[in-house]
Specification:
alpha+beta, 4 helices, GTP Cyclohydrolase I, domain 2, single chain, four-stranded antiparallel sheet, elongated
């Protein structure tokens, strides 16, 4: 399956169990794999036949920066829902990495990794 991959989108996400983390925000990185047919875009060389990844990345960062949710799982699910609402997107993989965690032992990051597909009607 064809994919558009966006790796390491950096943002100050409003996510965390402590209210202070949600208000202040914390450094996060988001990785996306967006599955859709890219053959028409490849042959036509037209942006109209694919997903505008600049627009998508801006929207995903905005979602994270306005999230106000407690769990990374909730943020990842919201991002997946947005991506699946885009035309011709069949499946998405969303990885949300929280780079700083209040009162946690030393670690590189904590992450949630979800895969969602378009629901069949």
């Amino acid at each position: 399956m064809d994919k558009i991959c966006l790796k390491g989108l950096r943002c100050l996400a409003r996510v965390g169990v402590p209210e202070e983390e949600r208000q202040k925000g914390c450094r996060c990185e988001i990785d996306l794999e967006i599955c859709r047919d890219l053959e028409a875009a490849a042959w036509s060389d037209c942006l109209e036949n694919t997903l505008d990844y600049l627009e998508v990345s801006r929207k995903v960062i905005l979602l994270a920066e306005q999230a106000g949710c407690r769990l990374l799982e909730t943020l990842a699910e919201r991002i997946a829902g947005y991506l699946l609402s885009q035309p011709m997107v069949l499946e998405v993989r969303v990885v949300v990495k929280k780079m700083e965690i209040a009162a946690a032992p030393p670690m590189e990051y904590a992450a949630v990794d979800i895969t969602r597909g378009r629901r069949k009607s």
